[in-house]
Design brief:
Helix content is 40%, strand content 16%. By secondary structure, the protein is α/β, with parallel strands linked by helices. Bound molecules: ligand L34.
Protein backbone atom coordinates (compact mmCIF):
# COMPACT_ATOMS: atom_id res chain seq x y z
CA UNK A 1 0.00 0.00 0.00
CA UNK A 2 1.45 3.34 -1.07
CA UNK A 3 0.93 6.04 1.48
CA UNK A 4 -0.93 9.24 0.67
CA UNK A 5 1.46 11.84 -0.74
CA UNK A 6 0.06 14.75 1.19
CA UNK A 7 0.98 14.34 4.87
CA UNK A 8 -2.48 15.44 5.81
CA UNK A 9 -4.35 12.83 3.78
CA UNK A 10 -6.01 10.37 6.13
CA UNK A 11 -6.16 6.69 5.30
CA UNK A 12 -9.29 5.44 7.07
CA UNK A 13 -8.03 2.14 8.40
CA UNK A 14 -10.88 -0.35 8.54
CA UNK A 15 -8.62 -3.10 9.78
CA UNK A 16 -7.49 -1.13 12.80
CA UNK A 17 -10.89 0.34 13.63
CA UNK A 18 -12.64 -3.01 13.23
CA UNK A 19 -10.09 -4.53 15.62
CA UNK A 20 -11.09 -1.92 18.23
CA UNK A 21 -14.76 -2.77 17.74
CA UNK A 22 -14.02 -6.49 18.08
CA UNK A 23 -12.25 -5.80 21.38
CA UNK A 24 -15.37 -4.02 22.60
CA UNK A 25 -17.38 -7.04 21.46
CA UNK A 26 -15.17 -9.35 23.53
CA UNK A 27 -16.17 -7.41 26.65
CA UNK A 28 -19.85 -7.85 25.76
CA UNK A 29 -19.32 -11.59 25.17
CA UNK A 30 -17.82 -11.91 28.67
CA UNK A 31 -20.76 -10.05 30.21
CA UNK A 32 -23.15 -12.42 28.46
CA UNK A 33 -21.09 -15.40 29.61
CA UNK A 34 -21.46 -14.21 33.23
CA UNK A 35 -25.21 -14.57 32.72
CA UNK A 36 -24.75 -18.02 31.20
CA UNK A 37 -25.46 -16.89 27.65
CA UNK A 38 -23.34 -17.99 24.72
CA UNK A 39 -24.26 -15.94 21.63
CA UNK A 40 -24.75 -18.00 18.47
CA UNK A 41 -24.64 -17.07 14.79
CA UNK A 42 -25.72 -19.34 11.95
CA UNK A 43 -23.97 -18.52 8.68
CA UNK A 44 -25.55 -20.23 5.67
CA UNK A 45 -23.66 -20.56 2.41
CA UNK A 46 -25.28 -21.99 -0.71
CA UNK A 47 -23.00 -23.01 -3.56
CA UNK A 48 -19.38 -22.36 -4.33
CA UNK A 49 -19.01 -18.63 -5.05
CA UNK A 50 -15.29 -18.12 -4.30
CA UNK A 51 -15.67 -14.59 -2.91
CA UNK A 52 -18.59 -15.67 -0.70
CA UNK A 53 -16.48 -18.54 0.65
CA UNK A 54 -13.77 -16.07 1.71
CA UNK A 55 -16.26 -13.74 3.45
CA UNK A 56 -18.11 -16.60 5.15
CA UNK A 57 -14.89 -18.14 6.43
CA UNK A 58 -13.86 -14.79 7.82
CA UNK A 59 -17.23 -14.36 9.57
CA UNK A 60 -17.02 -17.80 11.15
CA UNK A 61 -13.42 -17.30 12.27
CA UNK A 62 -14.25 -13.96 13.84
CA UNK A 63 -17.10 -15.61 15.76
CA UNK A 64 -14.75 -18.27 17.13
CA UNK A 65 -12.17 -15.65 18.15
CA UNK A 66 -14.75 -13.70 20.14
CA UNK A 67 -16.40 -16.68 21.79
CA UNK A 68 -19.53 -16.52 19.68
CA UNK A 69 -20.81 -19.98 18.74
CA UNK A 70 -20.77 -20.40 14.97
CA UNK A 71 -23.25 -22.71 13.27
CA UNK A 72 -21.97 -23.50 9.78
CA UNK A 73 -24.39 -24.61 7.06
CA UNK A 74 -22.76 -25.20 3.69
CA UNK A 75 -25.31 -26.32 1.15
CA UNK A 76 -24.77 -27.49 -2.42
CA UNK A 77 -25.54 -25.15 -5.33
CA UNK A 78 -28.56 -27.27 -6.36
CA UNK A 79 -30.30 -26.83 -2.99
CA UNK A 80 -33.95 -26.03 -3.60
CA UNK A 81 -35.73 -22.99 -2.23
CA UNK A 82 -37.93 -25.35 -0.16
CA UNK A 83 -34.88 -27.01 1.41
CA UNK A 84 -33.39 -23.64 2.31
CA UNK A 85 -36.70 -22.45 3.75
CA UNK A 86 -36.84 -25.63 5.80
CA UNK A 87 -33.37 -24.93 7.25
CA UNK A 88 -34.33 -21.34 8.07
CA UNK A 89 -37.42 -22.60 9.87
CA UNK A 90 -35.21 -24.84 12.02
CA UNK A 91 -32.78 -22.02 12.77
CA UNK A 92 -35.64 -19.66 13.65
CA UNK A 93 -36.82 -22.22 16.22
CA UNK A 94 -33.38 -23.02 17.67
CA UNK A 95 -32.81 -21.15 20.96
CA UNK A 96 -29.00 -21.48 20.61
CA UNK A 97 -29.10 -19.53 17.35
CA UNK A 98 -29.48 -15.80 18.03
CA UNK A 99 -28.53 -14.57 14.58
CA UNK A 100 -29.09 -15.98 11.08
CA UNK A 101 -27.16 -14.86 8.03
CA UNK A 102 -27.70 -16.25 4.55
CA UNK A 103 -24.76 -15.13 2.42
CA UNK A 104 -25.71 -13.33 -0.80
CA UNK A 105 -25.81 -13.82 -3.72
CA UNK A 106 -27.91 -16.99 -3.85
CA UNK A 107 -28.04 -19.25 -6.94
CA UNK A 108 -30.45 -17.82 -9.54
CA UNK A 109 -33.13 -20.50 -9.00
CA UNK A 110 -33.68 -19.28 -5.41
CA UNK A 111 -35.58 -16.06 -4.67
CA UNK A 112 -33.40 -13.99 -2.36
CA UNK A 113 -36.33 -11.93 -1.12
CA UNK A 114 -38.40 -15.02 -0.30
CA UNK A 115 -35.50 -16.37 1.76
CA UNK A 116 -34.82 -13.10 3.56
CA UNK A 117 -38.53 -12.73 4.35
CA UNK A 118 -38.47 -16.13 6.08
CA UNK A 119 -35.79 -15.17 8.61
CA UNK A 120 -37.22 -14.13 11.96
CA UNK A 121 -36.82 -10.32 12.20
CA UNK A 122 -35.42 -10.83 15.74
CA UNK A 123 -32.61 -13.00 14.33
CA UNK A 124 -32.06 -10.93 11.19
CA UNK A 125 -28.55 -9.69 12.01
CA UNK A 126 -28.08 -8.62 8.37
CA UNK A 127 -31.02 -6.22 8.66
CA UNK A 128 -32.44 -7.32 5.30
CA UNK A 129 -35.91 -8.43 6.46
CA UNK A 130 -38.65 -5.95 5.46
CA UNK A 131 -39.49 -5.40 9.14
CA UNK A 132 -35.96 -4.15 9.74
CA UNK A 133 -35.63 -2.19 6.48
CA UNK A 134 -39.00 -0.56 7.23
CA UNK A 135 -37.93 0.32 10.77
CA UNK A 136 -34.67 1.75 9.45
CA UNK A 137 -36.61 4.02 7.11
CA UNK A 138 -38.84 5.12 10.01
CA UNK A 139 -35.86 5.74 12.28
CA UNK A 140 -36.92 3.03 14.72
CA UNK A 141 -34.56 0.81 16.66
CA UNK A 142 -33.65 -2.13 14.39
CA UNK A 143 -30.86 -4.26 12.95
CA UNK A 144 -28.94 -2.04 10.54
CA UNK A 145 -27.32 -3.80 7.53
CA UNK A 146 -23.66 -4.46 8.32
CA UNK A 147 -21.93 -2.72 5.40
CA UNK A 148 -23.86 0.56 5.74
CA UNK A 149 -23.38 0.47 9.53
CA UNK A 150 -19.67 -0.18 8.94
CA UNK A 151 -19.37 2.85 6.62
CA UNK A 152 -21.03 5.09 9.19
CA UNK A 153 -18.87 3.78 12.04
CA UNK A 154 -15.69 4.10 9.97
CA UNK A 155 -16.48 7.75 9.18
CA UNK A 156 -17.37 8.63 12.78
CA UNK A 157 -14.39 6.87 14.33
CA UNK A 158 -12.06 8.48 11.77
CA UNK A 159 -13.33 11.91 12.80
CA UNK A 160 -15.45 12.64 9.72
CA UNK A 161 -18.99 13.02 10.99
CA UNK A 162 -21.59 13.05 8.20
CA UNK A 163 -23.65 15.62 10.15
CA UNK A 164 -24.77 18.46 7.89
CA UNK A 165 -22.54 17.18 5.07
CA UNK A 166 -23.56 16.39 1.51
CA UNK A 167 -23.10 12.64 1.13
CA UNK A 168 -23.30 11.33 -2.42
CA UNK A 169 -23.76 7.56 -2.68
CA UNK A 170 -23.01 5.97 -6.05
CA UNK A 171 -25.01 2.72 -6.14
CA UNK A 172 -28.61 1.84 -5.21
CA UNK A 173 -28.45 -1.80 -4.08
CA UNK A 174 -30.63 -3.17 -1.30
CA UNK A 175 -27.48 -4.31 0.54
CA UNK A 176 -25.59 -1.00 0.52
CA UNK A 177 -26.84 2.07 -1.37
CA UNK A 178 -30.48 2.23 -0.26
CA UNK A 179 -30.02 1.31 3.42
CA UNK A 180 -26.95 3.57 3.69
CA UNK A 181 -28.99 6.51 2.42
CA UNK A 182 -31.74 5.76 4.96
CA UNK A 183 -29.14 5.50 7.72
CA UNK A 184 -27.25 8.70 6.99
CA UNK A 185 -30.32 10.87 6.39
CA UNK A 186 -31.73 9.95 9.83
CA UNK A 187 -32.21 12.55 12.50
CA UNK A 188 -29.29 11.58 14.72
CA UNK A 189 -26.00 13.12 15.83
CA UNK A 190 -24.19 10.31 13.98
CA UNK A 191 -26.12 10.92 10.75
CA UNK A 192 -27.99 14.13 9.86
CA UNK A 193 -26.50 14.16 6.36
CA UNK A 194 -27.93 15.56 3.13
CA UNK A 195 -28.00 12.48 0.92
CA UNK A 196 -27.99 12.05 -2.85
CA UNK A 197 -28.09 8.63 -4.51
CA UNK A 198 -26.62 8.23 -8.00
CA UNK A 199 -26.74 5.11 -10.18
CA UNK A 200 -26.17 3.80 -13.68
CA UNK A 201 -28.99 5.90 -15.13
CA UNK A 202 -27.97 9.16 -13.45
CA UNK A 203 -27.34 12.01 -15.87
CA UNK A 204 -24.26 14.14 -15.16
CA UNK A 205 -22.97 11.74 -12.54
CA UNK A 206 -19.49 13.35 -12.38
CA UNK A 207 -21.05 16.75 -11.78
CA UNK A 208 -23.19 15.46 -8.91
CA UNK A 209 -20.38 13.39 -7.41
CA UNK A 210 -18.18 16.50 -7.40
CA UNK A 211 -20.66 18.16 -5.04
CA UNK A 212 -20.02 15.54 -2.38
CA UNK A 213 -18.34 16.36 0.90
CA UNK A 214 -18.41 12.61 1.45
CA UNK A 215 -18.44 10.37 -1.62
CA UNK A 216 -19.40 6.72 -1.16
CA UNK A 217 -18.79 4.30 -4.02
CA UNK A 218 -20.87 1.11 -4.02
CA UNK A 219 -21.48 0.18 -7.63
CA UNK A 220 -19.29 -2.87 -8.13
CA UNK A 221 -17.36 -1.50 -11.09
CA UNK A 222 -13.56 -1.49 -10.70
CA UNK A 223 -11.98 2.00 -10.71
CA UNK A 224 -15.30 3.66 -11.63
CA UNK A 225 -14.63 6.79 -9.57
CA UNK A 226 -12.05 8.92 -11.34
CA UNK A 227 -10.54 12.27 -10.26
CA UNK A 228 -13.02 14.31 -12.32
CA UNK A 229 -15.79 13.02 -10.00
CA UNK A 230 -14.06 14.08 -6.80
CA UNK A 231 -13.98 17.53 -5.24
CA UNK A 232 -10.73 18.75 -3.68
CA UNK A 233 -10.73 17.84 -0.02
CA UNK A 234 -13.53 15.26 -0.28
CA UNK A 235 -13.77 12.24 2.01
CA UNK A 236 -14.05 9.06 -0.07
CA UNK A 237 -15.41 5.70 1.13
CA UNK A 238 -14.85 2.80 -1.24
CA UNK A 239 -17.29 -0.07 -0.65
CA UNK A 240 -16.34 -1.96 -3.82
CA UNK A 241 -14.41 -5.20 -3.66
CA UNK A 242 -13.66 -6.37 -7.20
CA UNK A 243 -11.41 -9.23 -8.22
CA UNK A 244 -9.42 -8.33 -11.32
CA UNK A 245 -7.27 -10.94 -13.08
CA UNK A 246 -3.57 -10.43 -12.36
CA UNK A 247 -1.19 -13.17 -13.52
CA UNK A 248 1.59 -11.51 -11.49
CA UNK A 249 -0.31 -12.22 -8.28
CA UNK A 250 -0.05 -15.56 -6.43
CA UNK A 251 -3.85 -15.93 -6.37
CA UNK A 252 -4.18 -14.97 -10.05
CA UNK A 253 -6.21 -11.86 -9.16
CA UNK A 254 -5.99 -8.77 -7.05
CA UNK A 255 -8.64 -6.79 -5.20
CA UNK A 256 -9.53 -3.31 -6.36
CA UNK A 257 -12.27 -1.00 -5.20
CA UNK A 258 -14.79 1.08 -7.13
CA UNK A 259 -12.44 4.06 -6.77
CA UNK A 260 -9.30 4.63 -8.84
CA UNK A 261 -7.34 4.95 -5.60
CA UNK A 262 -3.98 6.14 -6.90
CA UNK A 263 -5.50 8.71 -9.25
CA UNK A 264 -7.94 10.12 -6.70
CA UNK A 265 -5.53 10.14 -3.75
CA UNK A 266 -3.92 13.56 -4.41
CA UNK A 267 -7.34 15.25 -4.27
CA UNK A 268 -8.87 13.78 -1.13
CA UNK A 269 -8.79 14.68 2.56
CA UNK A 270 -9.41 11.06 3.49
CA UNK A 271 -10.00 7.73 1.77
CA UNK A 272 -10.51 4.04 2.58
CA UNK A 273 -8.17 1.40 1.15
CA UNK A 274 -9.33 -1.83 -0.55
CA UNK A 275 -8.71 -4.30 0.98
CA UNK A 276 -8.57 -3.18 4.62
CA UNK A 277 -11.34 -0.56 4.47
CA UNK A 278 -15.05 -1.24 4.59
CA UNK A 279 -14.74 -5.08 4.31
CA UNK A 280 -13.42 -5.69 7.83
CA UNK A 281 -15.92 -3.14 9.20
CA UNK A 282 -18.79 -5.20 7.73
CA UNK A 283 -17.67 -8.21 9.74
CA UNK A 284 -17.23 -6.20 12.94
CA UNK A 285 -20.77 -4.79 12.63
CA UNK A 286 -22.11 -8.31 12.08
CA UNK A 287 -20.56 -9.34 15.40
CA UNK A 288 -22.11 -6.30 17.10
CA UNK A 289 -25.54 -7.13 15.66
CA UNK A 290 -25.19 -10.76 16.78
CA UNK A 291 -24.43 -9.70 20.34
CA UNK A 292 -27.42 -7.36 20.33
CA UNK A 293 -29.61 -10.20 19.07
CA UNK A 294 -28.37 -12.46 21.88
CA UNK A 295 -28.96 -9.73 24.47
CA UNK A 296 -32.44 -8.99 23.24
CA UNK A 297 -33.45 -12.64 23.03
CA UNK A 298 -32.20 -13.41 26.53
CA UNK A 299 -34.30 -10.59 28.02
CA UNK A 300 -37.42 -12.12 26.54
N1 LIG B 1 -26.15 -11.78 3.59
N2 LIG B 1 -24.49 -11.25 2.08
C1 LIG B 1 -25.06 -11.06 3.27
N3 LIG B 1 -24.57 -10.18 4.18
C2 LIG B 1 -23.48 -9.45 3.89
O1 LIG B 1 -23.05 -8.53 4.76
C3 LIG B 1 -22.84 -9.64 2.67
N4 LIG B 1 -21.67 -9.00 2.33
C4 LIG B 1 -21.47 -8.59 0.94
C5 LIG B 1 -21.72 -9.82 0.06
N5 LIG B 1 -22.84 -10.63 0.51
C6 LIG B 1 -23.38 -10.54 1.75
C7 LIG B 1 -20.48 -9.22 2.91
O2 LIG B 1 -20.35 -9.80 3.97
C8 LIG B 1 -20.01 -8.18 0.94
N6 LIG B 1 -19.46 -8.68 2.20
C9 LIG B 1 -18.11 -8.64 2.56
C10 LIG B 1 -17.65 -9.05 3.80
C11 LIG B 1 -16.30 -9.00 4.13
C12 LIG B 1 -15.37 -8.56 3.24
C13 LIG B 1 -15.82 -8.15 2.00
C14 LIG B 1 -17.17 -8.19 1.66
C15 LIG B 1 -13.93 -8.57 3.60
O3 LIG B 1 -13.54 -9.09 4.61
N7 LIG B 1 -13.05 -8.01 2.75
C16 LIG B 1 -11.63 -7.95 2.96
C17 LIG B 1 -10.89 -8.71 1.87
C18 LIG B 1 -11.34 -10.11 1.71
C19 LIG B 1 -10.66 -10.83 0.55
O4 LIG B 1 -9.45 -11.08 0.68
O5 LIG B 1 -11.31 -11.12 -0.46
C20 LIG B 1 -11.19 -6.50 2.92
O6 LIG B 1 -10.16 -6.18 3.51
O7 LIG B 1 -11.86 -5.71 2.27
Amino acid sequence: MELPNSEKTVLMDGKKISAQILEECETSVKKLADRGIIPGLAVVLVGENPASKVYVRSKRQTCEKLGIRSFAHDLPADTTEEQLLELIGQLNADPHVHGILVQMPLPPHISEQRILNAISPDKDVDGFHPVNTGKLLNGEDCFVPCTPAGCQELLIRSGFSPRGKHVVIVGRSNIVGKPLAALLVQKSPCADATVTICHSRTRNLPEIARQADILIAAIGVPNFITPDMVRDGAVVVDVGINRVPDPGHPKGYRLVGDVDFQAVLPKVAAITPVPGGVGPMTIAMLMKNTLRAAEKQSHA
